[in-house]
Specification:
It comes from Streptomyces durmitorensis. This protein is an alpha+beta fold. 41% of the residues lie in helices and 19% in strands. The strands form 3 sheets. A 5-stranded antiparallel β-sheet has the order 1-2-3-5-4. Strands 6-8-9 form a 3-stranded antiparallel β-sheet, with helices on one face. It has a two-stranded antiparallel sheet with strand order 7-10. The longest helix is centred in the last third of the chain and has 21 residues. Helix 2 crosses helix 6, helix 4 crosses helix 7 and helix 7 packs antiparallel against helix 8. The protein has a single domain, classed as Alpha-Beta Complex (Aminoglycoside 3'-phosphotransferase, Chain: A, domain 2), CATH 3.90.1200.10. The protein is globular and about 50 Å long.
Length: 248
């Protein structure tokens, strides 16, 4: 019998692996609807959907290995990172999906959430005030109008698979929708700043690196409390707090 492996689990959802099958358990069926619809529309490799029986979605494993994990040096080649950039560009150039995604939230709402998180981080002595203030200043560049693109919305490196320097699959589409293309590029390179040049080379067009750096700060500031409250460690080497410190 294949061993059951817990890939990720918290109060909102859980993903289990049994052999070559991933079982995604999510009480919010709207997220699963978004994921299924996005994978059908995306012009990039995605997992095969095997079956769906709420609250479970079963998908097949994709070949290859992830580009890496946040907090760990990536062993993927520059060519693989460039291939990821090219795949993301293909996604961003695709016809828009029907709904906004995580990368397409109202900027006023994002700014309000950001200010609230910054206040919480300081008043609860989670992070030094000067660190929070500096990164809040950097994050301001991300709070500017953007042209809608088909975005993945949670394009962390553990969600992108490659084999022989080719992208073989992009997983976890529950946050997909219309959004800021630079949000995806920033998410992919969060904590992997040394690979941004390869990604941009594959993406094939000029990008505003100041906005990507702003998204690094913004995402990290917004993420620290959630990660702590859900049993993750944003203080681990190379993770969100180190990303914030690098802006100093």
């Amino acid at each position: 019998m294949d061993e059951v492996k817990v890939v990720v689990a918290h109060s909102e959802r859980a993903t289990l692996r049994v052999g070559d099958v991933f079982l995604k358990v999510d009480a919010d069926q709207a997220r699963i609807d978004i994921e299924v619809d996005a994978m059908a529309l995306a012009p990039v490799p995605t997992p095969e959907i095997l079956w769906r029986k709420p609250p479970v979605l079963a998908i097949a494993a994709v070949p290859g290995r992830t580009l890496g994990r946040l907090g760990e040096p990536s062993t993927a080649s520059p060519t693989a990172w460039a291939a990821a950039g090219a795949a993301i560009r293909k996604l961003h150039d695709a016809p828009l999906p029907p709904r906004p995604g995580r990368a397409g939230r109202d900027l006023a709402e994002v700014a309000a959430d950001l200010d609230g998180e910054c206040e919480w981080l300081v008043t609860h002595d989670v992070l030094p005030a000067d660190l929070v203030t500096r990164n809040r200043q950097v994050a301001e560049a991300a709070l500017a109008p953007w042209t809608p693109a088909f975005t993945h919305g949670d394009l962390q490196i553990a969600h992108v698979f490659a084999d022989d320097d080719e992208i073989t699959g992009i997983i976890d589409w529950s946050e997909a929708g219309q959004g800021d293309a630079l949000y995806d590029l920033a998410t992919l390179t969060l904590g992997q700043e040394e690979h941004i040049g390869d990604v941009v080379a594959g993406y094939g067009t000029d990008v505003d690196l100041d906005v990507i750096q702003a998204w690094w700060s913004l995402r990290s500031l917004l993420g620290v409390r959630w990660l702590v409250e859900h049993g993750f460690d944003p203080f681990a080497p190379g993770c969100e707090v180190d990303v914030l410190r690098s802006r100093m």
